């Protein structure tokens, strides 16, 4: 597919240079498909800045996919603002910003596959997301995925880092059986490297029978969801498209 660029925009981190590693890994794999003239990555924090990266995308059409787990201020306001564009108006280009990868309904299937691979004995699942201390109580994609998974596990619960239900409380309620724990985070910054491991270590030390499945950010199947966001088939079928 020529005449088309793909730009993945993630949160990034000013403190953690490794925060962009997952999205860079997916970008590298997507370059190998040959579906795009260019596959680029931009980060809101830590750089490279979205507007700078977009300026280097010269194809007539640029598909921008937010590499975020939730739809919210970052995906609806921060990314368009950071790109410095209004749908490509006046540029002679077609710039399309899709829905974030993490809100894709098929993410539930990736969760099932990851748990089956990393914690095959676990029949209970705890999904952990970020949440918001400033705007608590909002319906999240995390909740939608939990509902989709309700029939696939004996019990599915959600927990958040910045608002109730908090992780320690959720784990305390799941002490009586092995539980697979999976973080729905798109980056590898402080929450993934410090906050979540500390919470799980405390729970494990207290006897919680948990199976840590890491975070969904590095799951290879996310590439198929990225392609679906821009209307293309998964990598294994791309050659037949």
Explain what you see.
This protein has nine helices and eight strands. It has 241 residues and is α/β, with parallel strands linked by helices. The protein folds into two domains: 4-101 and 219-238, 3-Layer(aba) Sandwich (Rossmann fold), CATH 3.40.50.1400; 107-217, Rossmann fold (3-Layer(aba) Sandwich), CATH 3.40.50.1400. Helix 4 (107-118) packs across helix 5. The longest helix is centred in the last third of the chain and has 16 residues, at 190-205. It is globular, with a radius of gyration of 18 Å.
Short key terms for the protein model shown above:
4-stranded parallel beta sheet; 241 residues; alpha/beta; 9 helices; Rossmann fold
A few lines on this structure:
The chain has 241 residues and is of the alpha/beta class. The protein has helices at residues 21-31, 50-55, 73-83, 107-118, 141-149, 167-172, 190-205, 222-229, 235-238, and strands spanning 4-12, 38-45, 61-66, 94-97, 124-129, 155-160, 179-183, 210-215. Helix 4 (107-118) crosses helix 5 (141-149).
């Amino acid at each position: 597919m020529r005449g088309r660029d793909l730009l993945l925009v993630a949160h990034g981190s000013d403190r953690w240079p490794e925060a962009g590693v997952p999205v860079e890994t997916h970008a590298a794999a997507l370059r190998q498909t040959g579906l795009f003239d260019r596959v680029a990555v931009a980060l809101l924090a830590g750089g490279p800045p979205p507007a700078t990266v977009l300026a280097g995308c010269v194809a007539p059409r640029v598909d921008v996919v937010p590499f975020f787990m939730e739809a919210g201020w970052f995906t609806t306001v921060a990314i368009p603002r950071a790109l410095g564009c209004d749908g490509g108006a006046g540029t002679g280009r077609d710039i399309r910003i899709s829905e974030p990868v993490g809100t894709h309904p098929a993410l539930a299937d990736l969760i099932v596959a990851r748990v089956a691979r990393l914690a095959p004995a676990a029949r209970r699942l705890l999904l952990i997301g970020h949440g918001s201390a400033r705007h608590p109580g909002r319906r999240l994609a995390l909740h939608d995925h939990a509902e989709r998974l309700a029939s696939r596990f004996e019990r599915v619960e959600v927990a958040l880092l910045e608002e109730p239900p908090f992780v320690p409380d959720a784990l305390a309620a799941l002490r009586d059986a092995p539980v697979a724990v999976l973080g729905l985070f798109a980056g590898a910054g402080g929450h993934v490297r410090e906050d979540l491991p500390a919470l799980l270590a405390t729970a494990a030390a207290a006897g919680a029978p948990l199976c840590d499945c890491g975070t969904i950010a590095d799951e290879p199947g996310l590439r198929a969801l990225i392609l679906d966001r821009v209307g293309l088939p998964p990598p294994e079928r791309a050659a037949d498209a």
